[in-house]
Q: What sequence folds into this?
């Protein structure tokens, strides 16, 4: 559980799955600080848009405020601008945050352009991630599993093993039906079509010894890796939260041996695909 805190709406790339596309809000410093002060969870996801498009003095003020309030700080970015951001401020931010969550959903430049609709971003992201780890920051890479990249998920793991030995872990996040992905059969794969490559990717992580999590796909599709499933862990710990409201079991869940530890598929998935299985 975390407080998701977008600090702007603008982005420099256009991920075809982007959950925040079309979102807006009050991103004034006063409102952001009030939201941080009101938080009772203790874990803040600084997000956007892309937060590296925010003025550097303001960004530092937001991160510093979270730190003063004793929050766990997760900084979500596509990393394209990391090496071109104000160097001094970026260095300070890298020390203040608990970890960077870098959205990176492709293992080569061609696929990256298909996913983000922007050429050139891939090389900048690689530089950005190396820059973060050289500064001593912890980095999690988030691979959004969707139609354009699902079959390449195992290749992504090879790429991470080769290119980023200092990255701490990978999160395989099944695409949510929000923003640009809302209601899109072009973007959201069927669980049964995604399960093969997704499980193969997690097997590779095990073989390489790379830490990983998986989220937003029902536990039964990734049962061999259930201990890595965010909801499985939350349900075992009897946590409450949006996993219980955004997801709902279907008739097909009746009799499932995992039913007590899985909240079911996302509601937006069932609205689009009709059922767990075709
Ligand atoms: C909307 S982005 C904004 C922050 C930043 N621009 C980035 O991409 O990390 C916040 C997080 O949501 C993830 N995300 C975006 N669209 C998503 C979707 N449809 N389903 C699941 N996660 C998504 C991104 O990978 C990222 O980790
Ligand atoms: S997911 Fe992040 S990087 Fe991609 S378009 Fe949305 S805000 Fe930008």
A:
């Amino acid at each position: 559980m975390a407080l998701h805190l977008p600090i702007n709406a603008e982005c420099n790339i256009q991920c075809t799955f982007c959950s925040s596309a079309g979102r807006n809000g009050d991103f004034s410093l006063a409102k952001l600080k009030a939201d941080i002060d009101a938080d009772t969870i203790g874990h803040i996801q600084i997000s956007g848009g892309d937060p590296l498009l925010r003025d550097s003095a303001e960004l530092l003020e937001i991160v510093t405020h979270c730190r003063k309030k004793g929050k766990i700080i997760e900084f979500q970015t596509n990393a394209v601008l990391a090496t071109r951001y104000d160097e001094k401020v970026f260095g300070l931010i890298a020390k203040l945050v608990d970890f960077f969550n870098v959205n990176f959903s492709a293992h080569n430049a061609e696929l990256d352009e298909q996913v983000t609709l922007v050429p050139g971003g891939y090389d900048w992201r690689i530089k950005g991630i190396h820059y973060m780890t050289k500064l001593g920051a912890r980095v999690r890479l988030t691979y959004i599993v969707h139609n354009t990249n699902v079959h390449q998920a195992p290749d992504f793991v090879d790429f991470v093993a080769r290119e980023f030995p200092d990255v701490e872990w990978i999160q395989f996040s099944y695409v949510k039906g929000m923003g640009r992905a809302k209601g899109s059969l072009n973007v959201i794969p069927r669980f049964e079509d995604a399960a093969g490559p997704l499980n193969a990717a997690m097997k590779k992580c095990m073989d390489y010894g790379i830490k990983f999590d998986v989220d937003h796909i029902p536990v039964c599709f990734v049962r061999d890796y259930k201990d890595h499933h965010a909801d499985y862990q939350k349900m075992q710990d009897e946590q409450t939260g949006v996993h219980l409201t955004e997801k709902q079991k279907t008739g097909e869940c009746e009799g499932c041996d995992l039913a007590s530890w899985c909240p079911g598929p996302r509601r937006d998935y069932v609205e689009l695909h009709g059922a767990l299985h075709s």
